[in-house]
């Protein structure tokens, strides 16, 4: 006896602890997931970290421009007479190459680490740098310093090994200007196979020179084609020498700037006949240009001015004439002081850049996100240039002759992410207006990833809403049917069938959606839509027809009449859907619905009628209830059962026709007002437009199937939880089953049904496989029900495997996960709160 | 017990009737009524005539089938699909169990008051006029009038007339039950079926309900199921004693209580079992 008691107590205790541990564990697990997501995403929003690395004595003369190698250890700087290769940690000049020619103008090609020079005698030369790193696997002397210079190389000691850094210089003659005119400005763009040079000679003629090199794959023979053209700029230049000349990346525009802010652009789209595009002052407040350069990619011009600002410019569409491009200021950045901008060093990695002003303040910004990454004040007396290395992790600042070289270590992990760039509209390079864009990767190097989560959130909500529009009525109607009308046997079989539906893997549903349903629906779009209209119609129609049967027969059919009605109404609805849709397609959609969708010459009347039909029905029912109900009641007075049935049927047809007429009337008015639902609606733009095979309609339909079971199960439980005595009280008061449902059961179960809907909502939001397979995965914001979209969950599934760990992309995907987590968490919490409240309320009954 | 079951199955047992019933105007006529819950028989060959304008009480120990019989009269048992019936019940000479009968029409003729007060989760006013509203009555003047009349009849009008729009759950248990009675009589049914209406109430509320039942007799036929013998004695004109699904004895209440003819009845009334 005692033994048993002890065992009982022990079992009780173990169970208690296990349950406690399990419960707390669950909460901890959820919390941990949340914290993990938070912990992964928080670094995205940090700005840069700076630490001073070294301050080395240098023997340099006045520096004008320069290049820093990938590691930020050696630099090639240009002082006007020579190039010097400098070791940044020690400040030594390890190599010096004086220019053997007198130059008049030079340009810099950031892509190839090269300079182009125009010489006094009309030649054009190119100076190429190649930074190299060798690993020397020999024993290193013990006491050797970390950095040392030997034989024109910078040696770096790491453990018992050494790396050596050095630069190779190559000088190449490019073109010789025939008549020996002096070149005042020059710029070039060079790719592997072609070379585009623009130069202005002192007779104010702009010359364009294009060299295209082709290699025959079979013979290996190299052929070169040289094109030349020019444009006389005497009139616009008016004897002045421009200060900057730049060619844009697509070689379509040559831009000329004066320090006073005048801007002249020459359209070179047609190489043979360039023409002047724009000529204007870019600043209206009299600011002067003090420095000017391209951002990476040669699309954005960064203009540093004497007030301490750097503005970013590119041509955007003119608001009046969309074909006209106007050079406009898009962004503005403050250098930190009201002193002139001295130098701008664009990053070679992303859209960030470093500003150096006359006061020696160095600021680093990311252009599109506007994130302020770095803010340093240089210790040099008069800093001249600040150079950023390729990895964006070092800044080297050079000063006057005899000054030191200052280097800073940077840590800027995610320059392109701010709260605004993830959730707000961003104006990306070369676009005309701010937009929400998700585009995480591309083939080109100077591509800027675009991480707006809004298109994904939009896609998620779009998918969810369309799915819920389909799932809610079906699930709740079937819950009402099984809990209130069906016999126990039917109820059990329906319930288990729906539960089997829940166990269908969503990948199977997605497969069905993508490979069976969407190709099928694509051919019968309008018939599908009309079936959704005609099936309820034919159900109601059958309901009216059945009333014409003798009352005795009807009552003796009992519960089977629902099945009999369904058996006739379903095929009838489908048949009517097909028949009417083909008729309507000819009548309203010019014979082809899908063509009508994107041919705006066709009248939008049919589309409007289709969209407005539910409203037409609603208005008709409202008007009938408001004005005709009593007349109708008086008609029914003193009529036999059969006569009443006939009157009901006539009423049904009259109301149907009225709905159609009202719908068309409204559709006609809107069409007359000139509003087209395919392209010019306010805010949402379009409701229906070009048909894409995998679209919101298909996803809504199939995802509806995935959420029906959960909504059904929970709302069926809510309906069943309505106390039996209320049901029988209502029935005993003479209410029909339907009246009982509408007046008593539904109001009581409403909160439970609501929470069922919210749980379904949560499920639909997180659904991945179906949307992944059937939604087309296009991250666009488009209300069009016939277009695809991409959801947060599908996006994570698609992109996470290819995202580099801890990269910006990787962390943004975790941010997407966090957003998804919060969305479902909020919705589920909300649903649970309502459910608990409802449980309390129902215990009162 | 098993002997009794055998007797019942073999139709050997016969109900004892009080001859006084012959003079009454009959409204409900139960004829050879058998009821099965699945395979289990719950009512055995009930033959019973309920007089119009009188209070008839059904008494008997728990599980004897009195509630089942009451719910068979307005076919509430039909809600359960494993219920099967044999025989017939006539209301005003018309079969209740005919296949062509419209259940909602039928139930409109019979108000019902349940064991536990079961007001709907809506206002007092809406509760009372619910049977009329579902019947398509929309005129506010009619609804107001019916509401006042029914509540007055149920003796609740003075207590609630200032808070008709308040939720019915705000009332006390006894008030709720009288509200349910008001709801039952609102559509002016012919019969009011009461299923142990006082079992969930305190003595004072019970007293009020009993008073009400007595006054209802003027206008309606009342069939009441009760556990409480004193209550049956106080409010009813006729009493039926049921035992194990069988109608043992049925007759004038005074006769049943004063000189029962069957020994089981006597045992039950005197409290020897039940």
From TrEMBL, chain B:
PROSITE patterns: ABC_TRANSPORTER_1 (PS00211), ABC_TRANSPORTER_2 (PS50893). Residues 28-269 form the ABC transporter domain. GO terms for biological process: phosphate ion transmembrane transport. InterPro entries: AAA+_ATPase (IPR003593), ABC_transporter-like_ATP-bd (IPR003439), ABC_transporter-like_CS (IPR017871), P-loop_NTPase (IPR027417), PstB-like (IPR005670). GO terms for cellular component: membrane. It comes from the Bacteria. SMART domains: AAA. Keywords: ATP-binding, Cell inner membrane, Cell membrane, Membrane, Nucleotide-binding, Phosphate transport, Translocase, Transport. GO terms for molecular function: ATP binding; ATP hydrolysis activity; phosphate transmembrane transporter activity. This is Phosphate ABC transporter ATP-binding protein. It comes from Calditerrivibrio nitroreducens. The lineage of its organism: Bacteria, Pseudomonadati, Deferribacterota, Deferribacteres, Deferribacterales. The gene is pstB.
């Amino acid at each position: 006896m005692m033994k048993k008691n002890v065992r009982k107590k022990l079992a009780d205790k173990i169970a208690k602890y296990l349950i406690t541990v399990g419960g707390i564990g669950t909460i901890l697990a959820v919390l941990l997931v949340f914290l993990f997501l938070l912990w992964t995403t928080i670094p995205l929003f940090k700005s840069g970290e700076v630490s001073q690395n070294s301050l080395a004595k240098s023997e340099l003369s006045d520096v004008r421009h320069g290049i820093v190698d990938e590691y930020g250890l050696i630099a090639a700087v240009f002082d006007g007479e020579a190039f010097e290769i400098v070791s940044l940690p020690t400040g030594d000049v390890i190599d010096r190459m004086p220019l053997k020619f007198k130059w008049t103008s030079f340009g810099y090609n950031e892509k190839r680490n090269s300079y182009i020079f125009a010489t006094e005698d009309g030649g054009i030369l190119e100076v190429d740098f190649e930074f190299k790193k060798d690993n020397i696997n020999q024993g290193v002397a013990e006491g050797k310093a970390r950095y040392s210079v030997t034989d024109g190389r910078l040696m770096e000691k790491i453990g018992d090994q050494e790396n050596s850094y050095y630069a190779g210089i190559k000088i190449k003659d490019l073109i010789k200007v025939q008549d020996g005119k002096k070149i005042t400005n020059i710029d070039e763009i060079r790719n592997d196979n072609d070379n585009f040079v623009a130069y202005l000679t002192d007779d104010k003629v702009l010359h364009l020179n294009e060299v295209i090199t082709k290699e025959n794959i079979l013979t290996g023979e190299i052929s070169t084609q040289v094109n030349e053209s020019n444009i006389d700029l005497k009139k616009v230049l008016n004897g002045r020498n421009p200060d900057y000349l730049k060619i844009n990346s697509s070689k379509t525009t040559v831009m000329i700037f004066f320090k006073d802010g005048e801007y002249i652009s020459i359209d070179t789209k047609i190489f043979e006949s360039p023409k002047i595009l724009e000529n204007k002052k870019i600043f209206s407040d009299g600011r002067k240009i003090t420095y000017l350069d391209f951002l990476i990619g040669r699309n954005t011009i960064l203009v540093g001015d004497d007030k301490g600002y750097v503005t970013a410019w590119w041509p955007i569409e003119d608001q009046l004439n969309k074909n006209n491009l106007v050079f406009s200021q898009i962004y503005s950045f403050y250098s930190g002081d009201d002193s002139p901008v001295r130098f701008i060093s664009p990053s070679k990695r992303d859209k960030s850049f470093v500003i150096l002003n006359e006061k020696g303040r160095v600021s680093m910004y990311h252009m599109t996100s506007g994130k302020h990454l770095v803010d340093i004040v240089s210790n040099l007396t008069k800093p001249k240039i600040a150079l950023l290395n390729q990895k964006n992790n070092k800044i080297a600042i050079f000063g006057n002759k005899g000054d030191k070289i200052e280097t800073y270590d940077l840590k800027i992990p995610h320059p392109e992410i701010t709260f605004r760039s993830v959730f707000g509209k961003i104006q990306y390079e070369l676009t005309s207006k701010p937009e929400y864009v998700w585009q995480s990767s591309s083939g080109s190097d100077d591509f800027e990833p675009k991480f707006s989560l809004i298109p994904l959130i939009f896609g998620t909500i779009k998918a969810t809403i369309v799915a819920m529009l389909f799932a809610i009525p079906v699930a709740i109607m079937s819950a009402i049917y099984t809990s209130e009308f069906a016999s126990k046997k039917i109820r059990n079989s329906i319930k288990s069938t729906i539960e089997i539906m829940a166990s269908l893997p969503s990948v199977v549903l997605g497969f069905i959606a993508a490979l069976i349903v969407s190709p099928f629906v694509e051919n019968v779009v309008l018939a599908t839509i009309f079936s959704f209209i005609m099936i309820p119609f034919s159900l109601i129609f059958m309901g009216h027809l059945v009333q014409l049967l003798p009352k005795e027969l009807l009552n003796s059919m009992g519960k089977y009449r629902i099945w009999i009605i369904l058996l006739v109404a379903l095929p009838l609805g489908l048949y009517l859907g097909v028949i009417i849709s083909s008729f309507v397609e000819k009548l309203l959609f010019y014979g082809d619905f899908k063509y009508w969708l994107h041919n705006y010459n066709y009248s939008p009347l049919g589309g409007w009628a289709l969209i407005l039909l539910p409203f037409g029905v609603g208005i008709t029912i409202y008007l009938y209830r408001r004005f005709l109900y009593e007349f109708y009641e008086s008609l029914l007075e003193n009529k036999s059962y059969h006569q009443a049935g006939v009157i009901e049927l006539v009423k049904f047809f009259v109301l149907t026709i009225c709905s159609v007429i009202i719908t068309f009337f409204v559709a006609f008015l809107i069409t007359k007002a000139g509003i087209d639902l395919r392209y010019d609606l306010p805010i949402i733009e379009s409701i229906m437009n070009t048909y894409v095979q995998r679209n919101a309609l298909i996803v809504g339909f199939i995802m509806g199937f995935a959420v029906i079971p959960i909504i059904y199960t929970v709302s069926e439980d809510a309906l069943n939880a309505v106390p039996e005595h209320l049901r029988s009280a209502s029935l005993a008061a003479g209410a029909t089953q339907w009246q009982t449902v509408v007046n008593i059961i539904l109001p009581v179960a409403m909160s439970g049904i609501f929470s069922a809907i919210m749980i379904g909502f949560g499920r639909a939001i997180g659904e991945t496989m179906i949307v992944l397979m059937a939604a087309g995965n296009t991250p666009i914001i488009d209300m069009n029900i016939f277009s695809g979209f991409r959801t947060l969950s599908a996006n994570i599934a698609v992109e996470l495997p290819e995202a580099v760990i801890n990269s910006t992309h990787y962390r943004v995907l975790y941010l997407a996960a966090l957003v998804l987590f919060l969305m479902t968490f909020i919705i589920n919490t909300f649903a649970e709160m309502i459910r608990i409240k409802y449980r309390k309320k129902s215990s009162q009954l | 017990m098993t002997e009794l079951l055998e007797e019942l199955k073999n139709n050997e047992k016969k109900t004892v009737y009080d001859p006084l019933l012959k003079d009454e105007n009959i409204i409900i006529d139960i004829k050879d009524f058998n009821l099965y819950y699945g395979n289990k028989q719950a009512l055995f060959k009930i033959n019973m005539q309920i007089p119009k304008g009188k209070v008839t009480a059904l008494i008997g120990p728990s599980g004897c089938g009195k509630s089942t019989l009451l719910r068979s009269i307005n076919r509430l048992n039909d809600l359960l699909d494993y219920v099967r019936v044999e025989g017939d019940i006539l209301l005003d000479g018309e079969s209740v169990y005919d296949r062509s009968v419209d259940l909602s029409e039928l139930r409109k003729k019979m108000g019902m008051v349940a064991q536990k007060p079961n007001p709907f989760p809506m206002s007092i006013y809406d509760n009372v006029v619910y049977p009329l509203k579902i019947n398509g009555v929309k005129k506010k003047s009619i609804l107001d009038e019916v509401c006042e009349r029914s509540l007055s009849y149920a003796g609740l009008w003075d207590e609630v007339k200032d808070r008709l729009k308040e939720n019915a759950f705000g009332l006390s248990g006894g008030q709720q039950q009288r509200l349910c009675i008001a709801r039952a009589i609102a559509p002016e049914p012919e019969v009011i079926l009461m299923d142990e209406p006082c079992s969930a109430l305190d003595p004072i509320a019970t007293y009020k309900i009993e008073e009400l039942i007595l006054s209802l007799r003027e206008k309606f036929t009342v069939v009441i199921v009760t556990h409480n013998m004193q209550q049956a004695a106080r409010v009813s004109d006729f009493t039926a004693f049921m035992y194990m699904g069988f109608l043992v004895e049925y007759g004038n209440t005074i006769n049943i209580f004063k000189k029962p003819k069957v020994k089981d009845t006597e045992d039950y009334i005197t409290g020897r079992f039940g």
